[in-house]
Design goal:
The chain contains eight helices and two strands. It has 191 residues and is mainly alpha-helical. Strands 1-2 form a two-stranded antiparallel sheet.
Length: 191
């Protein structure tokens, strides 16, 4: 959806997704953007398989991933290149998988990359802040003993980095830091 601010068309929602795909389009070319969401969907199936394998076993993970691979709504959303669902789910699942690897291997890189991936999921779809925050809180409470100060600060910094980018993007587009999916009647140039 689109809104008009000071005579310019601006995105009404999910500016992080637009910015990420736009930056990616500068690197790989605009015609290749149509393939990003389907490729992320395939990677989602693999990450989903690994997560289910951790929770249950190899057999359950295989059949679950196979069902996801042929799930029509999943591919319906993935086939629309600028729809944010697949990208959000990919970064969310990847972040959870990396955090689980951190819990097992206790390497700071897994914590940093997992938190960065979760931050990117919120960069894409900020409306999911509460469920993602609850998920992170459950993880931190469950594995509190394995966190040291360095690991916690690295994870927190990597989680906040994409969110700070989103605030900067909001200020650049809307001239307001906290303008998530709202009407822009209180902005100075609308008075």
């Amino acid at each position: 959806s689109v809104n008009v601010i000071a005579g310019k068309l601006v995105p009404q929602s999910f500016p992080g997704m637009i910015f990420l795909y736009g930056a990616l389009g500068k690197i790989i070319g605009l015609s290749a953007i149509a393939f990003v969401s389907p490729i992320l969907a395939l990677l989602c199936v693999l990450v989903f398989y690994w997560l289910i394998k951790i929770i249950f076993d190899n057999n359950v993970a295989f059949w679950s991933a196979l069902i996801l691979l042929f799930l029509p709504p999943f591919w319906f959303n993935s086939g629309k290149s600028m729809l944010h669902n697949t990208t959000f789910i990919f970064f969310l699942l990847l972040g959870l998988l990396l955090l689980y690897n951190f819990a097992n291997r206790k390497k700071v890189i897994y914590s940093a990359l997992g938190c960065f991936s979760l931050g990117l999921s919120l960069f894409i779809r900020t409306a999911e802040l509460l469920p993602v925050a609850i998920t992170i809180a459950i993880f931190v409470i469950s594995f509190w003993k394995i966190f040291d100060r360095k690991t916690f600060l690295a994870g927190f910094a990597c989680f906040i980095l994409p969110l700070l980018g989103l605030l900067a993007l909001n200020y650049w587009i809307y001239t307001h830091f906290f303008s998530f999916n709202r009407q822009f009647m209180s902005l100075p140039f609308n008075r």
